[in-house]
Design brief:
The protein is about 40% helix and about 5% strand. It has 5 helices and 4 strands; from the N terminus they run E-E-E-E-H-H-H-H-H. A hairpin with a 4-residue loop joins strand 3 (about 50) and strand 4. The two termini are about 30 Å apart.
Length: about 130
């Protein structure tokens, strides 16, 4: 992984352009890569199931795990926050399953945020139990 000197985002070593700002690693200009009209789509660049950042944690997968298996804390285990996963299991047992409504809302909010917000709030945070 190499870091873009313009926007400080990490890109693959074989990339010639930064996906975030269009910085050209082969020259000193910061022009975006040429795009032909056939490859353009009307889709958003903020796809929920694209991996966000070098960690490879997908916002869509984490949100689906929170909605479907949130009371078991599976989304936290997926994000590498094992203590939060254990706390979620304990809270689910103590509240007799009412905790699942909280993580259902959390999953919906994960779908509503951008990849950058998700990465900042759930992946890069030093908090051991990020809820909202």
């Amino acid at each position: 992984m190499k870091q873009c000197p313009n926007c400080k985002q990490y890109v693959d070593d074989y990339s010639t352009f930064c996906n975030n700002c269009g910085y050209n690693f082969n020259s000193d200009t910061s022009t975006p890569p040429p795009v032909d009209d056939a490859s353009r789509t009307s889709y958003s660049n903020d796809n929920a199931f694209d991996a966000c950042g070098p960690e490879g944690k997908s916002r869509g997968v984490a949100a689906l795990l929170a909605i479907l298996l949130g009371s078991l804390g599976v989304q936290y285990f997926y994000l590498g926050k094992t203590s939060a996963g254990i706390i979620s299991i304990v809270l689910s047992a103590i509240t007799c399953g009412l905790w699942s409504f909280v993580v259902l809302i959390q999953g919906i909010l994960m779908f509503c945020m951008t990849n950058a917000q998700f990465r900042q709030k759930y992946v890069l945070t030093t908090s051991s139990f990020p809820v909202f």
